[in-house]
Design goal:
By secondary structure, the chain is of the alpha/beta class. Helices cover 53% and strands 16% of the residues.
């Protein structure tokens, strides 16, 4: 029996980790599987042959993409030729929809079964992309159940596999251990501030979060604040804001380690994004804020078709987490919401119970489920 051949393309670090888990699960079932494509270091470590490194696709922003259009087009053309000469039994595009969906459509036209792993946010905006997805992929693998329900309603083949983070993060976080590991105060109330991982986000929310901390400190003087910043550049920007506007604030600034910081905290104030999922899985009471450039915000209001911006609310299907968007994201509004959790522990406990239920729903053995779905598609197309 010939070894199964799998083509795969990933474009960034988060996709590399997903791909590595998927490859590991496939290799457990089929050790001789030949897997090749565009891969990151984690995928390569699991036995994937990299025709190109994943960093080649790690491009953000319209200007940057246009500047590298010829190079990206050339990489896609070389991949197509390679998979024409060495047809895989299945192709898997992991995230990177702008690159992968076009590639998947061409390969599907060559009678190569295609899988797309991680749904674009088509359920939220640009729903016209559904037609492209339906033409491009034989199976969509989603991380969240509400995404699968959306595709089912539009008759696109889909399978909800769960989220790998739900396997990685334990049911109960240990705040004492996290505080000790980060050298944070062991006693007293601790609020984590996560203004975002990008410079644009820290520019938009950094000062507001500092002013929120000042508002909280005036009403509850013994609260300590901790801020994890993703890069040295965002840390320097935030430190400058603190030095300029709140030099006496009781605050600890850390580079990276955002998950540990959230685990250590009693309450988390954070920008809407993936961090809200981590906070949910850590069972941390949270307050969500987001602010965009005003023109972008008004365009988003017109284009976005979902009632919430944060993943906890999207997963719950209702507003379990307070969201303060644009002009509503004021220090007083955010501060009152943060202090409610500190002053009313029962509200935090009720929210943590909901978070536990969502955590359980996302813990589906994602790597194994994704591998089963991929191999089932191969078997189906061979019949």
């Amino acid at each position: 029996m010939k070894a199964i051949r799998i083509g795969i393309v990933v474009g960034e670090a988060s996709g590399d980790l997903l791909g590595a888990g998927l490859i590991r699960a496939i290799k457990q079932r089929l050790p001789d599987a030949i897997i090749e494509g565009i891969a990151g270091p984690a995928m390569i470590a699991q036995g994937c042959t990299a025709l190109f490194p994943a960093e080649k696709l790690a491009v953000m922003g319209i200007v940057e993409i246009l500047g590298r259009y010829r190079e990206l087009h050339g990489i896609r053309a070389q991949l197509i030729r390679h998979f024409q000469d060495h047809p895989p039994d299945v192709f898997i595009g992991i995230d990177a929809p702008d690159f992968n969906l076009g590639l998947e459509r061409i390969l599907k036209g060559l009678d190569i079964p295609t899988v797309h792993y991680v749904s674009p946010s088509v359920w939220a905006w640009r729903r016209w992309r559904l037609r492209k997805i339906a033409r491009s992929t034989d199976l969509m693998l989603t991380l969240f159940p509400f995404e699968a329900a959306f595709y089912e309603a539009h008759h696109v083949p889909v399978r909800f596999v769960g989220h790998p983070l739900a396997e990685m993060i334990p049911d109960i976080a240990d705040p004492t251990a996290a505080r000790a590991a980060l050298d944070l105060p062991m006693q007293g109330e601790l609020v984590a501030l996560l203004p975002g991982s990008r410079m644009s986000e820290v520019n938009a929310l950094g000062l507001t979060f500092i002013q929120t901390a000042q508002w909280c400190a005036r009403h509850r003087p013994n609260v300590h604040f901790v801020v994890p910043l993703a890069t040295q550049a965002t840390r320097e920007l935030f430190e400058h804001l603190v030095k300029t506007h709140a030099p006496t604030l009781s605050i600890t600034i850390i580079t990276g380690r955002s998950r540990e910081v959230m685990a250590a905290a009693d309450v988390v104030l954070l920008a809407s994004g993936t961090a809200t999922l981590e906070a949910l899985l850590l069972k941390r009471p949270m307050v969500v804020a987001y602010r965009l450039v005003r023109l972008t915000y008004w365009l988003a209001k017109w284009l976005v078709k979902v009632p919430y911006v944060s993943l906890p609310n999207l997963l719950a299907g209702t507003g379990i987490v307070e969201e303060y968007i644009q002009d509503a994201a004021t220090p007083e509004n955010l501060g009152k919401a943060v202090l409610r959790f500190l002053e009313q522990p029962q509200s935090a406990q009720a929210l943590q119970k909901i978070f536990s239920d969502i955590h359980a729903s996302l813990r589906q053995r994602a790597d194994q489920q994704a591998a089963e779905a991929v191999l089932a598609l191969v078997k189906k197309t061979e019949l």
